[in-house]
Amino acid sequence: MTVQLKGRPEVITIQWIPKYTFMERLGHWLHTATFVPLAITGMILYFPFLQPLAQGEAGLFIRLVHRVAAVIFGLLPIVYYLVEPRRLILHLREFLLRKEDIGWLKAAPAYYLLGKHEAMPPQGRFNAGEKLNGLMMIVTWFVFGITGIPMWFGKGVIPPEIFRWLVVFHDLAMIVSVCMLMVHLYLAVAHPLMWAGLVSMRFGVTSAEYAAEHHAKWFYGPKRAMEMWEAKKREAAHH
Amino acid sequence: MNGKKSEIQMSRREFLGLSALGLGIALANARPAAATRAVAPDEVAILYDPVKCVGCKACQMACKRWNKLPNESTDPLGIYESPQGLSAITWNIIKLRRTETGWHFFNYQCMHCTDAACVEVCPTGALYHDPKGFVALDRDKCNGCGYCTQFCPYGVPHLQVENALTGRAKSAKCVFCQDRLWAGIGGPRCAEVCPVGALTWGKRGELLEKARARVAELQAKGMSARLYGETEAGGLHRLSILLDEPEAYGLPSVPKTPTFARAWQRIIQPLGNVAFGAALLGIFGVFLFVRRKIRMEEVK
Fold first, then answer.
1. What residue in A sits closest to B292 (Cα-Cα)?
2. Cα(A6)–Cα(A65) distance, rounded to whole angstroms?
3. Which residues in chain A have their CB less than 8 angstroms from residue B147's CB?
4. B29: which chain A residues are within 8 Å (Cβ-Cβ)?
5. Can you state the angle between helices B269-293 and B2-28, rounded to 10 degrees?
6. How many alpha carbons fall within 13 Å on the CB side of residue B244?
7. Do A23 and A80 contact (CB within 8 A), yes or no?
8. Does residue B145 belong to the interface with chain A, where contact is any CB pair within 8 Å?
9. What backbone phi and psi angles, to 5 degrees, belong to A13?
10. CA–CA separation, B78 and A24 (whole Å)
11. Which is deepest, A190, A219, B110, B269, by most CB within 10 Å?
């Protein structure tokens, strides 16, 4: 695909390669479409200044929305991996933190703030930051479920001593996940270097050039990417 | 030189912008300053003296009648206790207690704490402190979340559940006959109808004096009497004379949930707000910084 920016003479050629499957994207957006209403309706009970929205009929309604969204949010990963069980193993393998992720995290501030990508070690389809975000989502998904289901059905069944802690941990999981979402949203929508992220989550494709730079281990394969990385380091040391 | 100067001006503008945002977040999250209330002697209270109580259940009946609470079907166990405890439609109950010295009655209702965990955790403001001190409930505001039922140290509020699946419910509990009080009809119906003066009501300061004298009188007779509610949970508006440890009546010596509720609402949640604020400010700062440092046209 060729692109000509408005008022500029040069023509950019973008070679698109597939990155996310249709099911992955559907899962991502259904997760978004349930998490956002869950966060909003939950925060209505959380923030004192939103109290008017929590009262009476409005409050009963937001609690109902929270429950409907929670059912979909909770079932989504289960249904997804039942439909595509092989993806479970693939995703777990992709999201496992590795040694070189430490190097990525060390180099990340200079990269994200100043655009210096020289020190960034090659990454797979998901980089260390995406992995941390993903792992946090897995942990909080479990915490939301473990605390939320008894909060729904357990009143009067489970001891109040335990119930009180469930409410607190439900809150903590919300705080962590909403903070992560804010960072995720900024990087996906507003950060200039991450321009391909939203494209690939919408259309499933990414630019080959972008993939080579940001996801070398996935683009070239781990072996070749590491060889290239070592060669680059040797060359840098040489000069 | 010029470039330097403009950079300083930019950062000042950013600084002001960021400060305004931070202040906005802090203000938006400020809790209504209803902080720690102190109990006043001219607030109203109920005093219960189980030694005078004959277990006639007139209080229980009067409560149901005035508050138009339906009767509760209980299993025909052939026992004295019916219903067996407080519920969404039973806000006042006499329970029977067996000890080595015999059978004793004890009346249970909302304790109307000054340091009320239910008020602290209620996200709607439906539960609140009446200016006269007791804990009132505005059922129109209640959204049925049920936190009050789980945080009350006495297990008083109950949910009147319409639909367990959708969560459609309303909390219910004794409200000190707030309507009677404010309409000038009288006081709490339970105390008014008590034929033996076991339940009395009035100004809390006066009741405390009366209760202390009564405790001394009972102690002089050789009973291990004590007053419950003077300081518990910031001071209760339902005072009780006990003849045993509070635990023997199912009452906590030290109600812990108000502290837990306060730690949750006033420490953990504000810390969460700090996290939200820091995340927002950090992202906004990075956004402004990156916008100048990294140019989109340089990006491949």
1. A114
2. 44
3. 167
4. 47-49
5. 160
6. 17
7. yes
8. yes
9. -105, 120
10. 63
11. B110
Quick count: other Cβ atoms within 10 Å of Cβ A67?
16
**With contact defined as beta carbons under 8 Å apart, do A172 and B268 qualify?**
yes
Per-residue DSSP letters for chain A? -EEE-TT---EEE--EEE-S-HHHHHHHHHHHHHHHHHHHHHHHHH-GGGHHHHSHHHHHHHHHHHHHHHHHHHHHHHHHHHH-HHHHHHHHHHHS--THHHHHHHHHHHHHHH---TT-----SS-HHHHHHHHHHHHHHHHHHHHHHHHHH-TTTS-HHHHHHHHHHHHHHHHHHHHHHHHHHHHHHT-GGGHHHHHHHHHSEEEHHHHHHH-HHHHT-HHHHHHHHHHHHHHHHH-
B59 three-state secondary structure: helix
d(CA A86, nearest CA chain B) in Å? 34
Q: Are B141 and B126 in contact (CB under 8 A)?
A: yes
Q: Which of B79, B123, B126 shows the shortest CA–CA distance to B103?
A: B79
Which residues in chain B touch residue A67, judged by CB atoms under 8 angstroms apart? Answer: 165-167
The number of C-beta contacts closer than 8 angstroms across A and B is 131
What confidence tens digit (pLDDT) does each residue in A39-80 have?
999 999 999 999 999 999 999 999 999 999 999 999 999 999
Omega prior to B83 cis, within 30 of 0 = yes
Which residues of chain B have a CB within 8 Å of the CB of A58?
A: 143
Q: Which pLDDT band holds residue B72 (cuts at 50, 70, 90)?
A: confident
**CA gap B18, B22 in Å, rounded:** 6
Mean pLDDT of B157-185: 95
Query: 3-class SS at B250?
Result: coil
CA–CA gap between residue B187 and residue B179 (Å, rounded) = 9
Annotated domain spans of chain B = 44-254, 256-293
Looking at the domain B44-254, which fold is it? Alpha-Beta Plaits (3.30.70)
The answer to whether the CB atoms of B268 and A168 lie below 8 A apart is yes
**Does B150 contact A at CB distance below 8 Å?**
yes
- CA distances, B210 to each of A7, A147, B47, B92, B189 (Å): 90, 47, 9, 23, 20
Token pair of B244 as six digits: 């045993």
Closest-CA distance, A176 to chain B, in angstroms, reads: 8
ipTM value for the complex: 0.86
Dump pLDDT digits (tens) for B84-94. Answer: 899 999 999 99
For testing the chain A interface, which of B87, B142, B145, B161 should be mutated: the one with the most A CBs within 10 Å? Answer: B145
**pLDDT tens digit string along B15-48?**
566 666 655 655 555 554 445 678 999 999 999 9
